[in-house]
Amino acid sequence: MTLVQTQSRTASAHPVHGMVADTMDAAGPQVWEDMTVEVALSVMAAARTGHLIVCDDDGLCTGLVTRARLTAVRDSSGYTDRTRLRDIADVIGPFAPPLATRAETERAMRHRRLGALPVVDEHGNALGVLTLSR
């Protein structure tokens, strides 16, 4: 597991207007795709966060997973203690580009019912996480 530097932002630092890169939160904890669901839940609890950035073996962002999703997987009938993050099909993408507008990206997130979205650069590196404003 690799932790990313974090920057704190106040709730008022999320204007609806502007670019995604100007309004995103720090990426937070990043984990590898081969991590088990149980370990990922433990990392979330220790980091006191509701989501994790998931990366491949090269350290590139492949998606984001939430506590709610991991809990649902763990509670499902097909779950085993060997279930890995890469086994969860909806962990892959989507992503937000840093130069998209926040308003446009939030509309897309609401349409897809996403509460958080990783922001990645053109190489696939996680830059941060965009969360819906209330």
From TrEMBL:
Keywords: CBS domain
Keyword Repressor listed: no
Highest taxon above the source species: Bacteria
PROSITE patterns in the cross-refs: CBS
Cross-referenced PANTHER family: CBS DOMAIN-CONTAINING PROTEIN CBSX3, MITOCHONDRIAL, REGULATORY PROTEIN
CBS domain sequence ranges: 24-82
Coiled-coil parts of chain: none
Organism: Streptomyces pactum
Protein name (Swiss-Prot/TrEMBL): CBS domain-containing protein
InterPro entries: CBS_dom, CBS_dom_sf, Diverse_CBS-Domain
CDD domains hit by this protein: CBS_pair_SF
